[in-house]
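Hi support team,

I'm filing this because I wasn't sure whether my run with heme C finished correctly. The job status page said complete, but I'd like someone to confirm that the output block is well-formed before I use it downstream. Pasting the exact inputs I used:
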Amino acid sequence: MSASAIILMLLLTSSPQGDLTDIPCSRCHTPNAWTPLDPVRSFNHTRDTLFPLTGRHTEADCIQCHPGETAEETHAFAKARPECGNCHMDIHMNQMGSECDRCHNTNDWDMSRWTRNHSQTVLPLDGMHASLECRDCHGINFDRLVGQLSTDCVVCHEQQFNAAQLATDHPDNQMCRFCHNSRAWVPIDMSLHDSGFFPIYTGSHRGTWSTCTAECHIDPTNYQIFSCGLNGLCHEHDKSSMDSKHSGEVSNYVYNSARCYDCHPDGRGGD
Ligand code: HEC
Ligand code: HEC
Ligand code: HEC
Ligand code: HEC
Ligand code: HEC
Ligand code: HEC
Ligand code: HEC
Ligand code: HEC
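And here is everything the job wrote out:
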């Protein structure tokens, strides 16, 4: 044992041990020497403190996070603050806010393997988006990040939309996600139709139609316009039987698609 350690021990034994820490010395130290710490110590940071050591933090030395010149300072463990920015330099100079762990974890700062949080918070990287590089959307060096990108399909896919409109009788409707998914533009994916517009795959209209434009979207260039199968297109909705279904009991009834939808937004009889 070195001379300075002996002096320290003398100093320590002359003052109550509780001055350094309330945790029993033997949970970290061996009876033989103060350093190195007991390799099989019973103190367990992840279990015994509010700051679990994860990722690269498991490799760091105590004094890197609990620094100090004197024994009193190194044992003032509660002084350490858990916010990443207290120990790591903010290379973004506060442009990304102080919640570093929204984007980073303790394994490494590199963002190229970051996909999990993306799904939780923003545009899920599924379909064709899964195989893209970050820079395909965010630019080289992440020039475009928070507040500079939209999750709205049309903002990134306006060119395809314009081209589709020129080449085909594509509907003039920019809510792409109601008709497309991120796997491919065709075939179209209408699985949000029931929740977004009107139930056609569930409920009483399931199986009652043939194509998008035959009974309902009679003007293929404008999907805002729809027919409730009136005008003989749908036998069950013919005028005489509808008039008699609603006569007397229903005021304000008119034989008109927009009015049918006003009273039956979910396509059910009595709603
Ligand atoms: C939670 C773990 C922990 C407990 C409990 C603990 N220590 Fe320590 N102790 C440390 C760490 C960490 C260091 C710094 C090790 C290093 O320098 O690498 C240290 C270092 C020391 C040193 C050497 C200081 C120096 O500057 O070289 C002394 C002396 C010491 N501890 C005394 C005590 C005493 C006495 C107790 C009981 C009151 C105690 N320690 C309890 C973790 C602990
Ligand atoms: C990567 C940084 C880091 C490392 C490495 C680290 N700690 Fe901590 N430790 C912290 C932070 C941050 C806290 C504060 C947690 C809180 O209170 O929110 C803490 C809390 C503690 C506490 C509880 C303090 C209290 O009273 O609340 C003890 C004891 C402690 N650390 C001991 C150690 C020892 C011993 C080691 C080495 C074996 C160590 N720490 C390694 C960051 C670290
Ligand atoms: C109390 C101080 C402290 C806090 C708080 C802290 N770290 Fe660390 N971190 C360290 C130390 C010390 C190292 C080891 C550095 C070394 O070995 O050079 C480290 C290493 C890392 C590394 C490995 C790469 C590197 O820079 O060496 C990453 C990544 C990291 N920390 C992320 C985080 C994140 C994310 C947070 C917030 C959730 C955080 N840290 C909070 C002290 C801290
Ligand atoms: C909104 C997300 C976001 C937040 C919040 C954020 N960062 Fe970053 N960080 C990034 C991105 C994206 C990069 C990659 C930049 C690049 O490659 O040009 C990065 C890169 C880094 C790097 C360098 C990585 C390397 O490979 O050199 C460090 C260090 C870093 N961030 C630290 C922090 C710290 C510290 C905080 C909190 C104060 C923080 N970041 C908050 C998104 C974020
Ligand atoms: C298909 C396009 C696309 C790809 C590919 C993409 N992102 Fe994003 N990312 C977005 C959009 C859109 C946002 C939302 C921006 C906003 O809300 O301001 C976003 C947001 C983020 C944010 C901010 C998250 C937050 O909570 O504020 C980070 C960080 C990020 N992306 C990192 C990445 C990384 C790293 C990659 C590569 C692994 C990647 N992104 C790939 C489109 C993409
Ligand atoms: C932040 C920009 C961004 C957003 C938002 C975005 N995408 Fe993409 N998407 C891309 C990029 C970049 C590509 C790859 C290059 C390309 O094909 O244009 C891509 C590719 C695609 C592809 C494959 C294209 C092909 O030719 O095979 C489809 C399909 C697609 N996206 C659908 C969507 C849908 C649907 C949405 C809305 C839910 C959406 N995207 C939102 C950037 C975006
Ligand atoms: C109301 C439904 C609907 C909406 C909303 C919609 N599309 Fe389409 N889209 C279609 C239909 C229907 C087709 C033709 C499918 C087929 O040919 O089988 C199509 C085809 C396409 C094609 C392929 C065209 C070709 O070359 O054959 C692209 C690209 C496309 N849409 C892009 C978009 C984009 C981008 C948006 C949003 C800005 C969008 N669509 C919104 C229904 C829609
Ligand atoms: C002013 C509101 C209103 C309008 C407009 C309206 N309905 Fe109705 N509809 C009702 C009500 C209320 C009932 C329930 C009457 C009953 O149960 O006796 C009903 C009943 C029905 C039923 C019978 C359901 C069953 O279970 O037998 C059908 C089918 C129907 N409506 C279709 C239509 C169609 C198609 C249109 C447009 C031509 C239309 N409705 C317009 C309010 C309306």
